[in-house]
Write the structure tokens for this entry.
Amino acid sequence: MRLQKTTYDGRELYYIYMCGYKCYFHGDLVKKVDYKHVAETQYLVDFPLTGCDIVNVEGNLVIVPGNYNLFLFPYGDGGKLEEVDSAVKIFDPKTGNCAIILSDQDKIKVKWSDDDGACTTLLYKDGRKEDIPTEELLKYL
């Protein structure tokens, strides 16, 4: 995900608006990439993000180095987060269509619903995502 960069009092600050929050990223978590076909340096962060923590500062989220994994979970318009296993912190603004989930696990299970019904999603630290309409199906398969 591409971040914006600004400078304040000589310090570089990297940020993006996501899931209803303005999120600032510590410089150690940001990848600086120069592409031949783009004039300016790009500032990127990949999700899930490993080795981080989140501090809530007056409604802004500051992502700093730490011991957790940060997962982004988009659940779409009309969706609702129901339950998250293995979450340390969950930032679900109820006004967006995604949640920011911090966990000490390499895999998390998210139960959510939308207009089509309930769903369970597994998110992995390596970026894989697996969906199933309901875990009840697994009993019969």
Observations:
- The mean pLDDT is 90.
- Residues 2-105 form one domain.
- The chain is about 0% helix and 60% strand.
- The longest strand covers residues 60-74.
